Amino acid sequence: MTISHSQFNQEIFDKARATRTPLVGAFELTRSCNLACRMCYVRKYPAAGKPLSEQLSAGQWLEIGRQAAKAGMLYLLLTGGEIFLRPDFFEIYEGLYKLGLQISLNTNATLITPAIAERLAQHPPRTVAVTIYGASPATYADVSGDATGFERVLRGIRLLDENKLNVRLRTTVIRQNLADFEKIYQLSQELGHGLRLVDYVFAEDEEGEDPYAVRLSPVEQRECASRLYGWIVARQNEELKAGTEEQASTEEEDNDPTDIEQQREEPWKEAKHAFLCPAGNYSFSVNAAGKLLACLLMDEPGLGMGADVSLGEAWKQLKDLCEAVPVCRECAECEIRAHCSVCPAKLKTETGAFAKKAPYLCQMAEVNFAASKGER
Fold this sequence. Notes:
The chain is α/β, with parallel strands linked by helices. It has helices spanning 5-19, 58-71, 89-97, 114-122, 137-144, 149-162, 181-190, 218-241, 311-323, 329-332, 344-351, 359-372; strands at residues 24-28, 75-79, 102-107, 127-131, 167-172, 196-198, 283-286, 291-293, 302-304. Strands 6-5-4-3-2-1-7-8-9 form a 9-stranded mixed beta sheet. 38% of the residues lie in helices and 11% in strands. The protein has 12 helices and 9 strands. Helix 2 packs parallel to helix 3 (89-97) and helix 8 packs parallel to helix 12. The chain folds into 2 domains: 5-323, TIM Barrel, CATH 3.20.20; 329-372, no CATH class.
């Protein structure tokens, strides 16, 4: 009997979930970045500008990779910061690739050169996720602090495409690029790709400014999601009328296993602990300091690794730590929980506690619930 690729993947994930095997990992290779995006969680860390020479070496990352693969990891995300700032990136990437891992990359694509794209093509990653921050140099300057980033990201995407790499485009809409949203979508179409909308921006900002000076209100965020859906449907209808045979490229492509935001689990009311997404269940992260975490969006629960503690042993401890994280009972018993993207990382960031409901997330759930009923 033959099964589809998606069915095969589902069987793997079902087994990993049942046995709590660390199937999916994320390595934060660096917290250094050539951009300074207003909404990026990396900016809140004092180590964001730490010299590369003081971060984990290629050898250390490869050893962590070997231990993770031995413990059961098959899918791996390499992220940052900006991964291509590391001069030893390919030493790390190709060494991990040889372990037989399915590797995805997160990059702003501004540092992609012909040589980098060609070398990636020799050992193609599963996906290369690129975030577009605006549709003009002026918007790039406002969002990321670098007006040249706009032309450089376009060049990077085209180089990746020319080398037949699997590029996925996404955008984070904040107050500084909201006016560009439709143009960003149009740009993604001109580039021949779908566009995914990142639906949550952290409230924290290192300057301590009003969260709404950067992130959108729940109503605005929902309106962006609705607009994107409308554009996609309109384009698909146009292609159907034109008799286009090639399937439209949209966000409904095969899920990237390393994107845990796409892997939500229910039901919340029967939850035995707070982590309902893959984090701490069959997914883990290692930050730039070498600390094992359930998720890169939170600093706890987590623990250090070293010569005396392997990743496999640390994973067993991490699972116990995750089980000890309290469930927010107000969230668990909420009647519109299915419309909420709440998770321990977001609750801790929004409120400073795991078991305290977050007004912003509650408002978002109310807006989503109303939209599901056809209300505004």
